[in-house]
Amino acid sequence: MSVLPDLHVHYVQACQNLSQPENPFISRVLQEADKSDEISTKGLTLKLAGNNHLVPVPRVTDDDLGVLVSVLGQAAFVTGLDLAYNILTDAGAKTMATFLQENSTLRYLNLMFNDTGTSGAELIAGALHRNESLVHLRMTGNKIGNQGGMFFASMLKINSTLEKLDLGDCDVGLQCLIATAIALTQNKSLKAINLNRPLLSSQQEETTVHIARMLRSNSSLVELHLSKHEMKNFGVERLCEALYENSSLRYLDLSCNNITCDGVKFLGELLKRNQTLEILDLNANRIEDVGAIHLSEALLTWNRTLQALSIVSNNITGKGLVALAHTMQFNMTLSHIYIWGNKFDRSTCVEFSELIETGRLKLGCTDVAPYKVDGEVFLAELSHGLAKHHYWAPRCAAVASGAANASLEIVAVSEY
């Protein structure tokens, strides 16, 4: 049975019992939580991220975490825990693993950018063999390495509760990616996975081939991030061949790869037949005008499911950008487009200015805004994008979530 909201009182008592000094940051967050009116309706997420504060806060240590979990053990109304950007090591991971094995209410856990290593990853992944409550886990930026990633791949063969797993920037390697792909051919619960920026020594794209093979049989995965995989046109072709047979994937992130206009030709053909893909991120590739025209042709006549497209920094000139602007006049499904970092000419500025002024393209759904100098139209950059809140989140809802969320909230993957 859950203790009523007296988190701060229990925290002070626990610090005294364990002879541990109070962390003023934790105290303040717990005092705010005690005043929350959301506890009885949808549970509570404790936001203890060490970044995103106007005044620096004392970051949560392993010892602080030991006291905190002793308090949360009797607080079933706490369903989310954000511990990003703190200084938790493998010792903290051991504490958290024990907590996950004993706790049955925590649904969201964010450990991104701490100091968890391979042994800590083994402990947390091992705890998830038995945990049946956690839905969303973020390990981003913890240098767990290839071996640490292998423990999570093994966990995916057993766990049937986890819906969203973030292993981006974790220094995982080729073996981990292959093992994860194999595990996802059997896993039926995971809806979203981030595998961004692995450390790959091979140029043969074996990992992409295995991921493509997985997509042929996986029917639960909705969101897939493959940024910085050194993917080339060969890999894109393999993915497209697999996605002809996949009817679940809605969000495909291929940003920061080596895709050219030849690879986008395969994506254009895929968009003509695919009826499920809703977000496509091609940010920081090199598709150029020919690739942009391939996309515009598919979106103009054939595709009516894609909602968001990012082609930021792709060496596209006015010819390709104007083609996409014309497409948006006829394709009313495409609501979000991000184009900054390309080569704008006068016609590009005029076309996108008209889309915005007529209301066809909302400012919250693109990364450019028109302005005039001496009667001539130019485009300025807006800080919008598909991954705007991937590495941080505002403490208050300053923008509409649909305009800035990594996945536009297309799939209901529980964060809280």
UniProtKB/TrEMBL annotation:
<dbReference type="InterPro" id="IPR052201">
    <property type="entry name" value="LRR-containing_regulator"/>
</dbReference>
<dbReference type="Pfam" id="PF13516">
    <property type="entry name" value="LRR_6"/>
</dbReference>
<dbReference type="InterPro" id="IPR032675">
    <property type="entry name" value="LRR_dom_sf"/>
</dbReference>
<keyword id="KW-0677">Repeat</keyword>
<dbReference type="InterPro" id="IPR001611">
    <property type="entry name" value="Leu-rich_rpt"/>
</dbReference>
<protein>
    <submittedName>
        <fullName>LRC34 protein</fullName>
    </submittedName>
</protein>
